[in-house]
Amino acid sequence: MPDTPTPDFEDPKEMYAFFGLAVYGANLLESSLVNWMVALHLGGINGATRQDFDTVFDHFEARKLGQLLGATRSLTAVPASVDSALANALAERNRLIHRFFREHAENATHPVGQRIVIGELSSMIELFQKADALVTPIYLALWERFGVDQAMIERELEQSLRETEAKYSGL
């Protein structure tokens, strides 16, 4: 995820854009926990097949952040600093999704209040990024056992970008 943008506070819609970025960051963190859980589950299977991967991914992709965190804690010792960051991220994710705009109903109606909202959203974005940055090296190290290294990930991303570019190049 790129750095948190600097708001210009010129457009009231900017508040909603930051909300979208915060939700995006929370979703990336959930995806990282899915990757961690899949690696933990498949680490005990000798000769895991593509079907095994797909089945385990499908199972964990249906889970919410709190469920993923609980499942991770049940399978492995989560380092204290990572666990603390994930617990904070979970609390903020739940607040973001379930009550953020209710808490900021008045702020959302005034330009000064919108600055407060954007400030809180920016803090959430950074929190989710930091938590994800702690989780990513953990699951990447586990994925290397399956032959998935940074070079392979970059090749897959480049291929995906080429396919996307080809798909939309005529539009």
Summary, kept brief:
This protein has 171 residues and is an all-alpha fold. It has one domain.
Question: Can you walk through the features of this model?
Answer:
The longest helix is centred in the C-terminal third of the chain and has 33 residues, at 111-143. The chain has 171 residues and is mostly helical. The model has no long low-confidence stretch (mean pLDDT 92). The chain is 74% helix and 0% strand. The protein is globular, with a radius of gyration of 19 Å. The protein has one domain. α1 (14-42) crosses α2 (50-61), α1 (14-42) runs parallel beside α3 and α1 (14-42) crosses α4.
Could you list the spans in which at least 5 consecutive residues all have pLDDT below 50?
none
Secondary structure class reads: mainly alpha
Report the strand count.
Answer: 0
The rounded Rg comes to 19 Å
Structure annotation, total helices: 7
User: What is the string of helix and strand elements?
Assistant: HHHHHHH
Strand content: under 5%
**Mean pLDDT across every amino acid position:** 92
State the helical fraction. over 70%
List keywords for this structure.
171 residues; mainly alpha
Secondary structure: elements and pairs:
Elements: H1 14-42, H2 50-61, H3 65-75, H4 80-98, H5 100-103, H6 111-143, H7 150-168
Helix pairs in contact: 1-2, 1-3, 1-4, 1-6, 4-6
